[in-house]
Amino acid sequence: MRDRHALNSCPVAAIPGGKVFVDIYLGGILWVVCAAAGGALIAYFVRRIGMAEGRVNNNEAAGHVFTIIAGLHAVLVSFVLISLFDAVGAADDGSYQEANSLVAASWAAESLPEPASTRARELSRSYAEIVARQEWPAMGAGDEVSTLGWERLNELRVVVADAAANDEWQIDRKTEAADQLARVSQAREARLTAAGGGEVGAVLWLVLVVGSVLTVLLSNLFGGTRRTTHILIVTTLSAVIALLLFAIYQLQNPFGGGAQIGPDAFQWAVDRLR
Q1: DSSP 3-state of 260
Q2: Would you give the DSSP letter of residue 259?
Q3: Which is nearest to 248 in space by CA: 194, 200, 185, 215?
Q4: How far apart are CA 133 and CA 127, in angstroms?
Q5: DSSP letters along 119-174, please?
Q6: Does the record bear Transmembrane helix in its keywords (predicted)?
Q7: Which of 25, 60, 104, 262 might form a disulfide with 180, Cβ 3.0–4.6 angstroms?
Q8: Contact status, residue 94 vs residue 264, Cβ threshold 8 Å
Q9: What span, in angstroms and rounded, lies between the C-alpha atoms of 260 and 26?
Q10: CB 236 within 8 A of CB 63
């Protein structure tokens, strides 16, 4: 379970999210403004070069094509966004599973004889601090994570495996600690995979961008509205599409950008293991 009071009180170094989110907001506004300006210019020149009253005769044919292309594009954008949102949620839950299993392993190892008990607690706290202070900033920046975390986890696994168990209770606690460490390893692998492999591929980006451009261009084939009204419609469509693409761009890395899952789980673990 997540202990929110513990999370708020933990002193482990936090990610400077304030400036990051300001940059994200400014970047999003820039994307929307540029797309809206581009859409407005296209709509203006199409109406200026063509008939002032618009291309009314194209409405029926353009409507069929626009419905197909815009519909397929909307489905693709929705699918990508939902997939990214699910990935962010899974990464957040996975970080808590990893931290919870780490704490559970340390608590189970407390029943083992010395020096294994104390050493297991020290290594568990060290692992949580490495994840929060070193790995999290690297994952947020998209950099390669060092092997120090794996090394610390392997040390902890060896300490538990080599610890003597003198009765059935200690045998049970040793088995429990080993099982929890196996869960930590699995959750860690999933976290590193999510940090390094969650980006939208180049081919999919090409489809998203080309589909967005075609959708905006096709909207200029409709006629019947006044020039100002038509420009406003195309401008709004361009701005909304740009906003959705910006959301996709920001959600690619669950530990950076707009998602930016924090190391709260491991801050909680450090606090519990003091």
Answers
A1: coil
A2: T
A3: 200
A4: 10
A5: HHHHHHHHHHHHIIIIIHHHHHHTPPPPSHHHHHHHHHHHHHHHS---SHHHHHHH
A6: yes
A7: 104
A8: no
A9: 16
A10: no
CB 96 within 8 A of CB 183: no
Helix (H, G, I), strand (E, B) or coil at 31: helix
pTM equals 0.78
Q: What is the pLDDT of residues 197-248, one digit of tens each?
A: 667 888 999 999 999 999 998 888 776 667 888 889 999 999 999 999 999 9
Taking alpha carbons only, the member of 241, 175, 210 closest to residue 35 is 241
Angle (nearest 5°) at CA 177 between 174 and 182: 125
Any idea what DSSP says for residue 221? Answer: G
36-88 pLDDT, tens digit per residue, is: 999 999 888 887 776 544 456 667 777 888 889 999 999 999 999 999 999 99
Question: Which of 85, 73, 132 lies closest to 273, judged by CA?
Answer: 132
The CA-atom distances, in angstroms, between 48 and each of 60, 62, 88 are 22, 19, 46
- The amino acid sitting at 61 is A
Q: Are 176 and 108 in contact (CB under 8 A)?
A: yes
Q: For the chain, what is the total number of helices (H) and then of strands (E)?
A: 10, 0
Contact yes or no for 245/97 (Cβ under 8 A)? no
